[in-house]
Amino acid sequence: MPSILFEIKNNIAFITLNRPEKYNSFNREMALLLLEKLDEAALSKEVRCIYITGEGKAFCAGQDLAEVVDPGGPGMKKILSEHYNPIIAKITELPKPVVAAVNGVAAGAGANIALACDVVVASISASFIQAFSKIGLIPDSGGTFHLPRLIGRQKASALMMLGDKISATDAEKMGMLYKVFEDDIFKNESIKIAETLAQLPTKALAFTKHALNYSATNNLQQQLLLEDELQQKAAATKDFKEGVDAFLEKRKAIFKGE
Question: Which of 111, 122, 136, 229 fits as disulfide partner to 106, beta carbons 3.0 to 4.6 Å?
């Protein structure tokens, strides 16, 4: 079986991390295949939302450490520059919403890949851990960027230095994720979210994502100018016309992502 499962259905690209025997930890093959599938989803006109989850009991346990210590392996520099940094950049810049459906433990780079997504939901049995300090490393994969912006510097610092394991419920309370669902309904409810996003005005969602990405570094005036620029682009889309027509005609809008 491939280490990444990929299927397009109902305008959603379903990406499943598929090394369940290794808790979906990444090796080079899996990382490069994920990058390939993210590109495929980005370029597909059919795809209007990406849904990432894990096979088996885990979402992703981060890096397969056996590969790190392998003398014939890619080495830490390649693992970051060719695997995780491009994965985080693609998820963040992809002009379509990305849902992380965290079905189990999300550790290390696995946790930070989830946090880079636009909507993060988790099963109640899932957990998050910044496991890096346990093996003498620092958080990577955008963790030091995204986590403090989600939950504040003090909480992020403690979680990263102490390496505490956080339940999905506590993660939701901290603002780390959007919603938690009971295990028996998690898959259906998380897919419903992806289905909703896939039927919304895709370009407007992409512009929203773009604006949010820059809000972390822009001052207010810069952000207002960016909103102005993006709103003009949104107002020129066919979906905006459809949305206004549907509102005036008191019917449900049918967006096409155009």
Answer: 111
